[in-house]
């Protein structure tokens, strides 16, 4: 499973070491040699698990689909993005982390407010 491209639809066989990789970055991470450039590429569809060859010199719009199952494998890559989330329990069991918009929030007083302090002293 590729950590660089989340929606990889095919695996690519590298012509240099003849191993299968999801992307060129996976090859660079695991191998010590550079990826050999070639015009004919061998793909393995992850949907139907069948292999096929594509000539990249004559690549056109109809070549974006698996010839066996018509899976559209040439789609825009979705890369993982870093994000910060708060993990909690299931909200159906414990909803304390959810804010109820119907309840009015109490007015927050600051120590530096002169008007609020004078009004409270009476």
UniProtKB/TrEMBL annotation:
Molecular function per GO: zinc ion binding
SUPFAM superfamilies xrefs: CHY zinc finger-like
Identification of the protein by name: CHY-type domain-containing protein
Keywords, comma-separated and alphabetical: Coiled coil, Metal-binding, Zinc, Zinc-finger
Domain (CHY-type) ranges: 1-71
Coiled coil: 81-115
Any one Gene Ontology cellular component term annotated for this protein: mitochondrial intermembrane space
GO biological process, one term: protein import into mitochondrial intermembrane space
């Amino acid at each position: 499973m590729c950590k660089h491209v989340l929606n990889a639809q095919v695996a690519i066989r590298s012509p240099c070491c003849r191993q299968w990789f999801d992307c060129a970055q996976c090859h660079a991470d695991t191998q010590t040699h550079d990826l050999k450039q070639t015009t004919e590429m061998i793909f393995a569809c992850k949907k139907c698990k069948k292999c096929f060859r594509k000539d990249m010199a004559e690549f056109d719009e109809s070549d974006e689909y698996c010839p066996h199952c018509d899976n559209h494998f040439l789609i825009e890559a979705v890369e993982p993005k870093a994000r910060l989330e708060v993990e909690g329990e299931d909200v159906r069991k414990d909803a304390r982390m959810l804010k109820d918009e119907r309840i009015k929030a109490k007015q927050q007083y600051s120590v530096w407010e002169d008007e609020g302090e004078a009004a409270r002293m009476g």
